[in-house]
Amino acid sequence: MSVERLIPLVKSLEKEDIAVLMAVEEGMTSFEYVPLEQVVRLSRLDPQEVEYRLGRLEENRLLRRWIGHYVGYALNYAGYDCLALDALVKRGVVEALGKPLGVGKEADVYDALTPSGERVAVKFHRLGRISFRGVRRVRHYLAWKRHAPWLYRSRVAAEREYRALCLLHPKGISVPRPVGQNRHVVVMGYISGALLAEAIDLPNPRKVLKKVLENVRRAFLDAGVIHADLSEFNIVVDGESVLIIDWPQFVTPTYPSAERLLKRDVKNVINYFKRKHRVVVSLEQALAYVKGERSSLSLRVDRRAGGE
Questions:
Q1: Cβ contact 215:265 at 8 Å
Q2: Which of 184, 195, 212, 237, by CA, is between 20 and 30 Å from 51?
């Protein structure tokens, strides 16, 4: 279902519809498909009312029915989207959704407006929708003893990303401003610019690289946060400004593999700038700078380096 359709649909749902969706959500902590009698019990509605609402919700493709040795129901992403958006609308965080800003394997990001007319970005985490890459990458923070694994894991990813933004943004680090979060959805300040990987031309690549490494350094030293999956695909550039996005896999310096992950982040970034823009800095120097072991960087442009 198109995400743009969800806000009008959410506003058309009645409290009984929401109660049934929430009952199925709660039941999925114990069942892959929640038995009808459990939906009745958890929703505290009349059985006939529940059956009517389940039919209505299935017709709107917000859940799916399974018929085996019993009849059971499970939320799909559209139903989970509706629950998250219903909560965000009621809290006055989001009023309207617009066009997609980016659609990927593990998340969709949409332009949106708050009730006051502020432009924001709404990110829907969707782990496991297309590939298992994201699950392998973020295995360190996922719990596996749950039913409804994809919905639950996407919720954990959103909670972690929002937590990271709340740690980083108040320190003045160039990340999106956290606005709100519910279930698998994160609302953040509007994101303008282009992914570094897609930027056709950088007026001053040396300055951009310096800003990226400055922010990695400040995240590490001031907020105790390591991105742990940094690359040209989660750095947004707008002129000489940078914004580092996609933080659900972050770790702290006490994490067992923190040193290796920080080194990988730095290596990914400097290798990209060497390859694409011929801006050169040694890994040892860049890593020492990020860790606060040296106070400055020496970046140079080497016409012999990189090139594609």
A1: no
A2: 184
Residue-wise pLDDT for 106-141, tens only, equals 899 999 999 999 999 999 999 875 544 445 455 455
| Amino acid at site 266 | V
- For residue 109, the cross-strand partners are 102, 123
Is 0.70 topped by the overall pTM? Answer: yes
At residue 264's C-alpha, the angle toward residues 258 and 267, to 5°, is 140
Q: 3-class SS at 55?
A: helix
Give all domains of the chain, ordered by start, each with its CATH number: 3-78 (1.10.10.10), 91-189 (3.30.200.20), 194-301 (1.10.510.10)
Q: Is the pLDDT of residue 149 over 80?
A: no
Count of helix runs (H) and strand runs (E) in the chain: 10, 13
Query: Has 302 been annotated as catalytic?
Result: no
Catalytic annotation, pick one of 81, 229, 246, 265: 229
